[in-house]
Write a structure and sequence with these properties.
The protein is built from 1 helix and 5 strands. Strands 3-4-5 form a 3-stranded antiparallel sheet, with no helix packed on it. The chain starts with 8 loop residues before the first strand and ends with a strand. The model has no long low-confidence stretch (mean pLDDT 92).
């Protein structure tokens, strides 16, 4: 069985890469909203940015 690696970051539409904070993994199956420095709100689920 191949071991899955969890995503460690995501990239905002502005190009900035954000490293996932530790609390994200405790809420892995919940939608988390993160606000980038550019002001864009990004919804994350299981470490991936939702469209």
């Amino acid at each position: 069985m191949k071991k899955k690696t969890l995503p460690k970051s995501y990239k905002c539409a502005c190009g900035k890469v954000h490293v996932h904070p530790a609390y994200l993994y405790a809420h892995w199956d919940e939608i988390i909203t993160h606000t980038c420095d550019c002001g864009r709100k990004n919804d994350l689920l299981r470490g991936k940015k939702l469209p």
